[in-house]
Specification:
Layout lengths: L13 H18 L1 E5 H18 L4 H11 L2 H14 L8 E8 L6 E7 L26 H32 L2 H19 L1
Antiparallel strand pairs: 1-3, 2-3
Length: 195
C-alpha cells in the first residue's frame, strides 16, 4: 500500500526523475508553456512552484537553491528577472494545467502546463469586476445605463435629418438622367428613319 507516499514516481529512478523535471522546468521557464502528459504536468507543478516562490526574493542563497534544482544558468537568470517580476504580487498558484485530450499514439492523457501570468487570453486584470448585488434592491448601475440609452436615441434623431438632406440632393440629381434619355430615343428614331 502507498499510504503517506506523496512523491509521483513517474516510473523512473530518482536521478532520472529529477533530471527530467529539471529539464521540463527549464523548458517551462523559457517557453512559458509546454505540452506533456497530465501526470508529468502535476509532478512538474509540485516541482516548480516552490522554486518560483523562492525567486520572489532575489538573494544569492535563493539563486543557489534554484540552480541546484534547475541546473541551468540561463533558466535561473530568466526566472529571477522576468518571471519573478510578473508573479511578485501573486501568493501562489503560478502554473495552470489545461487538459488537451488523449494522444493519438498511445492514448495517454495530454495536458498543457503554463505560467499563469504570461497568458494573454485569460488576463483578468483588464476585465472590470462586477459589483455584487443584494437581493430585492435595484442596482445603481441601471440609472446610468438608461441615461446612456436615451443619449443614443437622441443621437439617432439628430442624424436622421442629415440623411434626408442627402436624399434630397440625390433627387435633384435624378432629373438630369431623364434628359439624356430623349437623346437615345432620337437616335432610335433616326435609325428607324434610316431603315
Amino acid at each position: 500500500m502507498r499510504h503517506g507516499k506523496k512523491v509521483i514516481h513517474l516510473g523512473r529512478k530518482t536521478a532520472h526523475r529529477k533530471s527530467m523535471l529539471a529539464n521540463m522546468a527549464c523548458s517551462l521557464i523559457e517557453h512559458k508553456r509546454i505540452n506533456t502528459t497530465v501526470t508529468k504536468a502535476k509532478a512538474l507543478k509540485q516541482f516548480i512552484e516552490p522554486i518560483i516562490t523562492k525567486s520572489k526574493s532575489d538573494t544569492t542563497h535563493n539563486r543557489r537553491l534554484a540552480f541546484s534544482s534547475l541546473r541551468d544558468k540561463t533558466a535561473v537568470s530568466e526566472l529571477f528577472r522576468e518571471v519573478a517580476s510578473k508573479v511578485g504580487d501573486r501568493p501562489g498558484g503560478y502554473t495552470r494545467i489545461i487538459k488537451l485530450g488523449n494522444r493519438l499514439g498511445d492514448n495517454a492523457d495530454m495536458a498543457m502546463i503554463e505560467l499563469v501570468d504570461f497568458n494573454e487570453v485569460y488576463k483578468t486584470e483588464e476585465k472590470a469586476k462586477k459589483k455584487s448585488r443584494r437581493r430585492g434592491g435595484k442596482s445603481k448601475s441601471t440609472a446610468p445605463a438608461a441615461a446612456t440609452a436615451e443619449a443614443v436615441v437622441e443621437e439617432e434623431k439628430v442624424e436622421a435629418p442629415v440623411v434626408e438632406e442627402k436624399v434630397d440632393q440625390v433627387e435633384t440629381a435624378a432629373p438630369e438622367k431623364p434628359a439624356e434619355a430623349p437623346k437615345n430615343e432620337g437616335e432610335e428614331t433616326e435609325n428607324k428613319d434610316g431603315e
